[in-house]
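Field guide to reading this record: the first block holds the primary sequence, the second block holds the structure written as C-alpha cells, and the final block holds curator observations. Each block starts with its own label. This record concerns Sulfotransferase, catalogued under organism Chiloscyllium punctatum.

BLOCK 1 — SEQUENCE
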Amino acid sequence: MLFKQQVLLRQKLFVLGSLAVGSLLYIVARVGSLDRLQPTCPIEGQFGDQEQIMLRALQYKRGLSHDLRKGNVTKEQIRLHNMVQQLPQAIIIGVRKGGTRALLEMLNLHPAVVKASQEIHFFDNDENYAKGIEWYRKKMPFSYPYQITIEKSPAYFITEEVPERIYKMNSSIKLLIIVREPTTRAISDYTQVLEGKERKNKTYYKFEKLAIDPTTCEVNTKYKAVRTSIYTKHLERWLKYFPIEQFHIVDGDRLITEPLPELQLVEKFLNLPPRISQYNLYFNATRGFYCLRFNIVFNKCLAGSKGRIHPEVDPMVVNKLHKFFHPFNQKFYQITGRTFSWPYK
Ligand code: A3P
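BLOCK 2 — STRUCTURE
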C-alpha cells in the first residue's frame, strides 16, 4: 500500500517537474531568440491604479483585439470591459511611403493607443464617405474609453476634399504627417508601383523617364510621385481648415534609424504619458529595420513590402529633383517649424 502511494507520488512529481522544465526551456528559447537591446523591461516598477489598468490593457490588448476583429468576443465581454468603438482622436494623414505603417504600429505599442488595422479610406473615397460617419465609427476597433483610436490613410494628405470632411467630423482632431526626404519618398513610391506592375507581368517605364519631362528636360510635375513629395502645397490646403498647432510632423527618415525619440515626440503631442521605451523596439539585422516587442513572448516586424530595395536612379536626375524640391522644402520648414537637412544639390 505504502509502496503504491510512493509510486503515485513519484509519478506526480515527475509530471510536475517535466512541466516546469518544459516551461523554463520555452521561456529561455524565446528570450534567447530576441534581439534584445535592454535586459529588463523599463516599464516595470511602481504604478498608480490607472497605470496598472493601462499596463494590463497592454498585455491583454493583442489577444482581445485579435478576437474582436475575428468576431470571437461576445457582447457580454465588450459590455463587461466597457469597450466602445470610438471615432479617431488622431489620424495619420500621410505621406504615402513616409513610414505611415511603421508609425501606426509603433504607436500601437502604447497601452493607451488602439489602431485601426486597415486603411479605411473614409474621407478620400466618395463612395465610403456617402455611407456616413456611423459606418466609419463601426470600422474602428473596440477600445477602453480612456484609450485613443488612431487610423492611417495616407491618401488623405493629397486628396482635395479631405481637410473639410475631417474638419466637419472633429475640428480639434490631431493630425500626424510623417515625411521623408522628398526624392527618396518619390523613388519609394515608384518602387511600390513598379512591384505591382511586375507582379502582373506588365512592363513599366524607368523612374527617370517618368520624373523628367522629355520635351522640356525639366522635372515632370504631372507625375504623381513627384507631386506627392511637394509637401508644402498639400499642407497649405490643410491649413485653410486647421491651425498648424493641430499638426505634428514626424521625421520618417529618423523613424527608420532611431525610432524612439520620434515616438516620444508623438506621445507628447498626443498628451499621452511616455510609455513606449527602447524595450519595445529592437533592431533586427536580417530585416535591416527596427521591429516591435509588445512583451516577452510577442514581437513582430513589419511585412516585407515595407523596406523594399529601390532601383538605382541616374544621379543627374536625383540632383535635379533635389534642386526642384529645395524651395518647397524651405517653405515647408518655415510653416511647420521643423527643419530637415534634406539635400539641395
Ligand atoms: P521603403 O519600402 O521605401 O524602404 P509606408 O508605410 O508609408 O508605405 O512607408 C513605407 C516605408 O516605411 C518603407 O519604405 C520603409 O523604409 C519605412 N519604414 C520605417 N520604419 C520601418 C520599419 N521599422 N520597418 C519597415 N519599414 C519601415
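BLOCK 3 — OBSERVATIONS
Residues 74 and 80 are 10 Å apart (CA to CA).
The longest helix spans residues 2-33.
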